[in-house]
Write a structure and sequence with these properties.
- The chain has 151 residues and is α+β, with helices and mostly antiparallel strands.
- The radius of gyration is 17 Å and the shape is globular.
- It has helices spanning 25-36, 84-90, 138-147; strands at residues 45-47, 50-52, 61-65, 68-72, 77-80, 95-99, 102-105, 109-113, 120-124, 130-133.
């Protein structure tokens, strides 16, 4: 395996690109290791004016509600002072947008009840919380669910 580092002053944040002939377990481990180097410190979680530091792995989904962005864990809700599109740009690949107002952590999805004519119901393991995936985002959700064993 050949490894090289290229400096680029025009980048706003660091970017890692893996070029490979085919994907094998070593490439997937390298990808996971690079993704795990990202920190959760860019996202501030608030509840009653108190700052909390939950792991991103504990977040089930992010959802906008009444001009606020909320982060849901299995048993709690935190407010995030960001826009959904800003959050979407910094979250790791295990998070995917499923509607105009929701981003989910595919690692926590227990089931997706598909409805051809309207939104699909997404349920999470270990909690009663559910969200809806719109038809426009369903293909991407389906793809990420297939990929989640590699995330």
């Amino acid at each position: 395996m050949k490894v090289k580092i290229e400096l680029d002053d025009s980048l706003s944040q660091n970017e890692v690109v893996i070029r490979c002939r085919d994907i094998d377990e070593n490439i997937l481990q390298l990808k996971r290791a690079a993704e795990n180097l990202s920190t959760d410190t860019d996202i501030v979680f608030l509840k009653d004016n108190v700052q909390f530091f939950p792991s991103l792995d504990s977040i089930l989904f992010f959802e906008t509600a009444e001009h606020a962005l909320n982060a849901h864990t299995a048993d709690d809700i935190f407010q995030v002072k960001m826009k959904l599109f800003e959050l979407e740009n910094i979250l790791p690949q295990k998070f995917v947008r499923i509607s105009k107002s929701t981003i989910v952590n595919v690692k926590h999805i227990y089931s997706v009840e598909r409805n051809i004519t309207s939104a699909s119901l997404v349920s999470f393991a270990g909690t009663h919380k559910q969200v809806y995936a719109s038809r426009n985002y369903y293909k991407l959700l389906k793809l990420r669910l297939v990929e989640r064993r590699f995330l």
